[in-house]
Design a protein that fits this description.
By secondary structure, this protein is mostly helical. Helices cover 64% and strands 0% of the residues. The chain has helices spanning 12-16, 23-56, 60-83. The model has no long low-confidence stretch (mean pLDDT 76).
Length: 99
């Protein structure tokens, strides 16, 4: 009989947690998570920039630039969040699971 993976219980630590680890490992993992956030933001910016042209009455490239700037800010916030030592470690992640 095959084992089934059980979902970790959702807790406050799961929602606001930082990247697990200390020192260089934590910096590396936080940077990778921030890069993932940046790529997701830019991926979302490409189709939404068309809507931005209507709302901002500007051309597509300017709207895309604003959207990418927002993605960069979100990635920076993600990095700081994952480095925050006062937050609890993410109980659903560990060095053996993330990477």
């Amino acid at each position: 009989m095959a084992e089934t993976a059980q979902a970790a219980p959702i807790s406050r630590a799961t929602i606001i947690a930082r990247a697990p680890g200390r020192g260089a490992d934590n910096v590396r993992l936080a940077a990778l998570r921030a890069l993932r956030t940046l790529l997701q933001g830019i991926g979302g910016a490409v189709p939404s920039a068309g809507v931005g042209t209507v709302m901002l009455t500007t051309d597509y490239w300017t709207a895309l630039g604003y959207s990418c700037l927002a993605a960069i800010i979100a990635a920076a916030v993600s990095f700081v969040h994952n480095m925050a030592s006062f937050l609890p470690e993410d109980p659903t992640r560990g060095p053996h699971r993330d990477g």
